[in-house]
Write a structure and sequence with these properties.
139 residues; alpha+beta; 4 strands
Length: 139
């Protein structure tokens, strides 16, 4: 039931508890109680919106893969988090230590984030940038 509630919220996070209860086929009290528990336990961390970044003026999107000097990952992660345009940041395994999703109004801005922002962090060993040609929405 929790997964059905979460799926319904993913489809439309603005639904009322009554609408959610009806969609998942439970009572309003049950839906309210389950949602409260999911929020208290941190399963649902926040509510957000699905933004059309192009219409917002951020048509450039790139995944930036970052390798850091061994044992420097904690400090580098904090610095990466504050680079302009970083929307998402993850610590990963494999050849790269971090993956960033960077959004920018133009290629010049993206260039500056990578060459001036990232390269100014002393413990960044290397980067690879993948421009996203299109982003496909999932249902």
């Amino acid at each position: 039931m929790d997964r059905r509630l979460i799926d319904a919220l993913r489809a439309d996070g603005r639904q009322s508890v009554n609408e959610l209860a009806s969609q998942v086929n439970v009572s309003r009290a049950t839906a309210y109680q389950r949602l409260a528990r999911l929020r208290e336990e941190g399963v649902i961390r926040r509510f957000t919106v699905d933004v059309d970044h192009r219409k917002l003026g951020l048509p450039i999107a790139a995944l930036v893969l970052v390798s850091v000097v061994q044992h420097a990952w904690r400090g580098v992660g904090e610095r990466l988090r504050h680079l302009p345009g970083v929307e998402w940041l993850a610590l990963s395994t494999g050849s790269y230590d971090y993956i960033l999703l960077v959004r920018a109004p133009d290629i010049d801005h993206l260039r500056d984030v990578i060459l001036e922002g990232l390269q100014a962090i002393p413990d960044v060993a290397s980067t690879q940038t993948l421009l996203l040609l299109d982003e496909l929405s999932l249902p």
